[in-house]
Structure formats: structure tokens, C-alpha cells
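Schema walk-through. Below, the input block comes first and the output block second. Nothing else is stored per chain. Lengths vary across the set, and this one has 340 residues.
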Amino acid sequence: MKSAAPTRAGRSDNSGHTSTVSFDDNRLLAALFGEHDQHLAIIEDRLDVELTPRGNHLSLHGDSADCTRARKVLDSLYERLQQGLEVGSGEVEGAIRMVGAAVSEVTDDSAESAVHIKTPRRVISARSPSQGDYISALATHELVFATGPAGTGKTYIAVAAAAAALSNGFVDRIILSRPAVEAGERLGFLPGDMREKVDPYLRPLYDALYDVLPTNRVVRGLDDDTIEIAPLAFMRGRSLNHAFIILDEAQNCTPMQMKMFLTRFGEGSRMVVTGDPSQVDLPAGQKSGLADALGLLDDIGEVGHVAFTRADVVRHPLVARIVGAYDAQASRRQKPGEPS
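--- output ---
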């Protein structure tokens, strides 16, 4: 059970198509190819092509369709570097996913460049077709549900969108909420003030905030309440205007809690609800408020819903395989005729 980084092994045969792509700006090639050509190694591994750099030229050898996809990946990454954006292994993996989807789904050449969020610290681009749908939904809907397994970017992209909205003056504050199911009645016995009590349950939201906003901006926001950490139980009775509100781990809400949260929606606000329906920590027999809300609101056109799958896992290739293994186990345990 070992996962290693791809190496430049190349192809073992001389068959197939050969073509050459040239790049005008040599200064960008180190970032394009990656340290020790690791980005090229990823493309070779994922698309089954051989890439041979010679100065500002790159030779592509392999199946014609694979070479075409590899060239589109390289063009996409090179364009990103020309725009002054960073390119790492995550961007390479994302470009491969997007180009793979474009073969059968995307006909507009501008589609890939349109799906990004610009925050004060970085530009977040879609790394899968579903992430592109998610970013588009966040731009066009006031209420968006994002469901699916861990590692698909549900929470991170929501926080990035909130940071961008706050920085651009579209909202006055960010409100982050999560149900502290694991704490239960013990929450009051934890040491410290309310923020310190719930911090362990909200740490993923903090991590995302610090990744898209400067540290001093996050600290200042927490101090002056333009960034607020609000446990779900403490949302009752509030009306949230001109705010970007995120409810994370929503599968652990009860239907009444979900109704309470959704009705906090105020003027000029945006709301995102994220969760993984397969990871419910509620007591046995308790219906998840996330599943309940998705069923009730399915026919409301103003509500967006993006359902991620194992194919959208972008955290690390191994995560997708882990999720797949657990899904397969759940399927084997499923009794014939039993609802999932």
C-alpha cells in the first residue's frame, strides 16, 4: 500500500503519433515542466504519452488522441502561467481532469478559464467538471447545496468564494457554522470561551480561511466579527443580512436544525450548505436534515445543488481510491432490495 510520485519512465515502444509544441516564453518553462520535470511525469502517467523537452520545444509521442489531450493540458497550464498564476501538481491534475471532460462535454473553449475564484492570496481554479459547476453555481445562486465525499473541495471552494465576496465588498461579513455533534452536552464542560470550545470542530474552516486570506486579515476579522464562528445551536433567532454564510458537515443536522438555519437567510446574503450524506454521525434512526432539505427543495429553481462523486476527489489520487474501497464495501454489505 505505497503511493509514489510518477517518474519519467517514458513509453516502451516506438509506435504512435509524434508532434511538437513550442512555447514563446522560456522563463515560464521551469514552472510549466515542474521541478525535475515532475509535471511532465504526471501528464505522461495519466495520459500515457511520452514528453521530451528540447529547449522551448516539447515533443509528444503516443496515441493521437492522447497527444491531443496532453497538448490541451500543456496549453491550459501555459496560459495560466502567462496570467501570472501558479502551477503546481494540483493544477496539473486539475487540467487533466478538465481536458478529459472537455472531450465529451465542453464545447466552449473559454469554459475552463471562466471557472475560478480570485481571493487575496490565490486564484482557485476548478480542478474537475463538478468543481466548475460548483463555482458557477456560487456565482449565480443565493443558496447552494454541495454534497459528496471528502476531498472534493466542497468546503474549501465555499470559503474561497466567501473570502472573495468579503474582499470585493459584496458582503459585510462571513459566518461559518458547523454542528458539533461529537461534543453533545459535553461542549459546556470544555475549557475556554465559546470560540475555544468549538475550535476543534471548526478547524477545517479555519484552515481554508488562512489559505485564501492573509493571516492578519483573518485575525482582525475574528476580532471585529466580520468573520464569525457560529455553532449551529447558536444560530437560532438571528436574521443574517449582507453575509456569506456557510454550514459545513450539514449531514449532521436534524431536519429542525436545517430548517432553523435556512430561515436565517437575510437581505443581500449568500448561503452555502455542504455535507457528505454517507458520513452521518447522528444517533441511529435520526433522519439527516441535509437529505431532508434536498428532497424538500428539489423543485425550487433558485436553489443550486452540486453533487460530487468519487471521480471529483482532488485532495490526492490515493483519497479517491480509499473512498472507492469504502463505497465498494458498503455495496457488498447492501442487502438485495434494501434502499441505500
